[in-house]
Amino acid sequence: MGKFWSLLFLCVPVLGTAMYLAGMYTSSGPLAMWFPENINPMAEEIDLLHDIILALSGVVFVATGLAIFLFMWCYECGCNKQLAKFVHGNHRVELWWTIIPTIVLVALAVYQFKVYADVRINRPMMAGADGVKGTADDVPEPASFEVMGRQFEWRIRYAGEDRLLDTPDDILGDVNELHCPTGTVMVGSLKSADVLHSFFIPALRLKNDMIPGTRQIVWFQADKIGSYEIVCAELCGWGHYKMKGRFVAEPPDQFQAYLQRLREKQFLREYVPAPPQPATDQVALDNQPTN
Ligand SMILES: [Cu+2]
Question: Which of 16, 156, 166, 213 could form a disulfide with 173 if both were Cys (CB 3.0 to 4.6 A apart)?
């Protein structure tokens, strides 16, 4: 076999680097592996954090792959007749390869906490009883839409004029289609009707598990008009692949017009009376044989 195995192992860092570069320079198609363009200004730091972690792990991945190749190539037993020398570790090297990763990981942990707090903890607030935003009595912004994951679709609902969910004026949305106005901070509520799902809109960098029996609150701002992908990022059953939806970011007036269309559709769905049915005894009379 000669150098076969060392060359095979060389393929790992080479192919890994090639895939990374292909993903970086391809914006569409099967080779476009990285994130689409970010349209959410509240999640810009997620991209930076992703790039830092990817660069660090990429360097370690390539260096480890090359080191494995080099050692296999140089010390392959078939053509290396020199007797092996046994060593019992090197405390100085071990110390450094423990200290350096520890410093890097602690620095990442400290930096990511701010990003985590922005997207998970610091929920948008609105003015409280005094009507002034930024004072001590501010209250959390209520969710203005709800997405319910169920096998295998997304059910959408919007708050009505009272801006609250779970009230009689809620507006039923189209299945698998979430609309939102651009340039507006949106707070949403995520629920699951059955099993674990994960609601993911890559263009917003918004990804959150939906856990049965709980309500998850998420927030974002879409700044670019367009239609983007919604996917389920949690294997949730045989039809998981069908959980594809559309996220539409549109100007506020178009969004209001869309809500109005939904309201009208809902009104028709609820109040169009069923065609009159003959009473049961009348049917019986009608069916009686006539002489
Ligand atoms: Cu799912």
Answer: 156
Close Cβ partners of 178 (under 8 Å, ≥ 6 residues apart): 145, 147, 154, 156, 230, 245, 246, 247, 248
pLDDT at 244: 92
> Quick one: pLDDT at residue 291?
47
Distance 194 CA to ligand 1 centre (A): 10
| Pair (147, 107) in one structural domain | no
pLDDT in tens, 119-174: 889 888 888 888 888 788 888 889 999 999 999 999 999 998 888 898 888 999 99
- Both tokens assigned to 43: 């999640």
Place of tokens 């998970």: 120
- Let me know whether 157 and 259 are in one domain: yes
Please give the tally of structural domains in the chain. 2
In a domain, 281, yes or no: no
31 CA to centre of ligand 1 in angstroms: 24
Which residues, other chains included, contact 137 with Cβ-Cβ below 8 Å and sequence gap of 6+? 128, 129, 130
**38: DSSP letter:** -
pLDDT at 265: 85
Q: For residue 201, what are the contacts with CB-CB under 8 A and spacing of at least 6?
A: 207, 220, 228, 229, 230, 247
Q: Is 130 within a domain?
A: no
Stretch 269-284: mean pLDDT = 63
pTM: 0.78
Query: Burial, 170: exposed, middle or buried (Cβ in 10 Å; 0-12, 13-18, 19+)?
Result: middle
Calculate how far, in angstroms, residue 200's C-alpha sits from the geometric centre of ligand 1. 10
